[in-house]
UniProtKB/TrEMBL annotation:
Taxonomic lineage from the root: Bacteria, Pseudomonadati, Pseudomonadota, Alphaproteobacteria, Hyphomicrobiales
Carboxymuconolactone decarboxylase-like domain ranges (all copies): 24-97
Signal peptide span: none
GO MF annotations, alphabetized: peroxiredoxin activity
SUPFAM superfamilies noted in UniProt: AhpD-like
Protein name: Carboxymuconolactone decarboxylase-like domain-containing protein
Amino acid sequence: MAPVTQPGREPLLLFRVLARDERLFARFFGAGLLDRGHLTLRQREIVIHRICALNRAEYEWGVHAAIFGERAGLGPQELAATIHGDAASPCWTADEALLIELCDESSRAAAVSPDLWRRLETRFGELAVLELLMLCGFYRTVSLLVNGLALPCESWGRRFAEFPPA
């Protein structure tokens, strides 16, 4: 589990649970999308945070907020908006609002309207849209895992309550 741990920290509880089954653990990490793909770190983290917040997956949201939030330039206003806001929240750029719109629409309908697809493809390109859809789906699965397992938040993870509505 060494490649997925952080110096000075025990491996994440989710990783320890999945590692009980070597096959599941390998498949889970084989599907990961935390590498440098077609999105910036900030774009990727906005999507992950929003999908986790929509699914009330505080465990995963809190891990990403603690590990990636600052590096991705997500301050308190943006983190709160991933939980309580929408695409019209004033902290989002036009491109970021499109990402929030994708998260919201795909979570409601498990689909993307032709209009939203066109706008996403125009702005980000076809390959980035494919990555965005995979990211939404993967973190919806992660949300189901952490919620279904009723994982308690990591002691160092951020909590929804730290970021009340504006």
